Fold:
Amino acid sequence: MRVRWITLMLICMLLPAACGRAPTAPSAEEADAPLTVLATTQQIADVVENVAGDAVELFTLLGPGIDPHTYVATESDISTFTDADVILYNGHHLEAQLERIFDQLAGEEGKTVVAVAEQLAETSLLSWEPEAGLPNDPHVWNDVRLWKDVVGVVGETLVAADPANAQTYQANAEVYTAELDALHQYILEQVEQIPQEQRVLVTAHDAFGYLGRAYGLAVEAVQGLSTATEAGTGDVQALAEIVAEREVPAIFIETTISPRTIEAVQAAVRAETGREVTIGGELYSDAMGDPGTPEGTYVGMMRHNIDTIVSALSAPITGADE
Ligand SMILES: [Zn+2]
Structure:
């Protein structure tokens, strides 16, 4: 039975049009048990929630405030990975400590393992450190157009793994994609409110390159694309000089990173110029907010980030309420 089901999955991957509805029904047990899906980041889990709704059983590995760059799997994580029918992770070395495990599991019969950001067209990605074996910046969710493509990747993966629910997945993905179109438009309009010369986003680690490219913000960070190495005093000093020179009105802390780095930049600017650069608020860089809050969804998290950025960088001109 298991073999027939896997054969059916393969046929459906090759000929998705033939599988709007499964041609032969799986056993009652298999039909009743929902697909179990493990998503590493909250961002990916949010896509699964929007595309699958209640049709799958979803596990999210990394909760609010958890840094994916440095996260190491526990024993209970490993058993969740082993039990999941589908594992969806970001890839491009975002979950650097988990990749080896996922590579191993990808070879197992009956299991689907997909690095969603690695399915995007290479030409759409920003580069990282190709000479160090790290070709691409993994923080793709910060460009809503790229994240729409990830919705497509997740949809196709779920259809292939669970053809019986194909229509649900496809219809939901379509609705959610329209929501993301509206979000993309919203961010474009919000950034327009920041005076041109003040469109500089300064953060602790370099998670916002895609946001900068897509929406027209210069991006500067103390640390590189990963948080795996500590920021040095030289990095802090170099960034403080940029902040001083460009008269950047505000700099931002991140929910997954200690505020010390950005506070050190603030102190260095103070020492150099006497000016007090504002801490413009807290951004969700690599994790989202608490489940059940607006920031616990991808759309809400992106809106929070852009509203925080716009309010802090354009406060004197827009007359923000503080
Ligand atoms: Zn990051």
About this structure: The two ends are 64 Å apart (CA to CA).
